[in-house]
Amino acid sequence: MNHPLHQAVADRIAQAVNSHIELVRDPACGGVQHLSLFVGKTKGREKRMCCVDLLLVSGGRVRGIVEIEESGFLPTKICGKFLQAGLADHFIHDTRSSGPLPYAERVLFVQVLDGSACIKNGGRKDKQATLIEAEIRRLLPLRGLTDYHLFFVNGPNDQSGLDAVGDTVKGILTEQGFGGDVATPTVPQN
């Protein structure tokens, strides 16, 4: 299945973090694995909270989570994915020889919505999204989730929207000592 916005967001974030952080992608973003988040260090259906689109990993810890929604804007989807990720505390996948990866002390959560699919002239979804973003930020920190941003990007060709996502991710991770021009060990990408 073709997910052009997923791929564009993943590529822009990869460019922003410039291999200073491992970017783990799900299939919609050009990767080969589902990215399941679990409660605790052991894998099990009853412990799996959700699958996400991108993970930013460094030093054996999850530093960032990115969720991309191309099909529209539903507050229950936005809030639900955030809460599920907030309940989880580990990324676990059989291909990771290092075992379960816990959340770092500070974790960035980014949601990207396709504005071309959900913003209508005269509508109020942008105002509702601004309110949701502000209210989620008031809840923080939630376990390891300490930073939250919600973006509307008008499709895969919206360079300014993609740049806003990439620049924000880079800025927050650099602030935390893990992004951009900060000298950190590089980890091979998946």
In words, what does this structure look like?
- The protein has one domain.
- Strand 4 and strand 5 form a beta hairpin.
- It is an alpha+beta fold.
- The chain starts with a helix and ends in a 15-residue tail after the last helix.
Helix and strand topology:
Elements: H1 4-17, E1 22-25, E2 35-38, E3 48-52, E4 54-58, E5 61-69, H2 75-87, E6 90-91, E7 101-114, H3 115-118, H4 125-139, E8 145-153, H5 159-175
Helix pairs in contact: 1-5
Provide a brief overview of the structure:
It contains 5 helices and 8 strands; from the N terminus they run H-E-E-E-E-E-H-E-E-H-H-E-H. The chain has 190 residues and is α+β, with helices and mostly antiparallel strands. It has one domain (4-175).
List keywords for this structure.
disordered C terminus, alpha+beta, 190 residues, 5 helices, eight-stranded mixed β-sheet
Order of helices and strands: HEEEEEHEEHHEH
Count of discrete domains: 1
Average of the residue pLDDT scores? 88
Fraction of residues in H or I helices: 25-40%
Work out the radius of gyration.
16 Å
Main sheet makeup: 8 strands, mixed
Our estimate of the beta-strand percent is 25-35%
Number of strands: 8
Uncertain regions spanning at least 5 consecutive residues: 180-190
Roughly how many Å apart are the termini?
Answer: 20 Å
Structural class: alpha+beta
Shape: globular
Q: Total number of helical segments?
A: 5
